[in-house]
Structure prediction request, 155 residues.
Amino acid sequence: MPRDAGAAGRRPRLMLSLLAATLVTYGAVVVLLFAAQRLLLYPGAWDGGGTSLAGLAPPGFRGLLLTTEDGEELTAWWRPPEPGRAAVLYFQGNGGNLAQRRGRAAALAEGGRGVLLLSYRGFSGSTGSPSAVSAWKCSSGANFSRTALATCVRR
Prediction:
């Protein structure tokens, strides 16, 4: 029985159409992921980022707004250590906000430890925009000295 020449000619065209559709779909997904990468990397920055949570500090903590060298304000909660006790610097992470760390703040402060919970730029009411560079600057510049805390902007 002779082969249908028309069906044989349609098969490569169908395969090319499927390949083209697959490539277009893949390209659209890559463009969408590229456009949304900040939202994917820093999901908590967009959840209530404009409302400062400094006033929601747990009992025993004081809400602060720390001013960075470049003028941004970072929301923080501070509990000074009891005499002879250590202090812990805690960054809230890139998901959620400080209010979701209230229990952890209390646990870290057990035994009289001092705790500074610091929110990244764009999170928990901190101004600015989150990025790897800004997180590095914030963590490398964090300082527990009385002088540094005395220069905090309190609201």
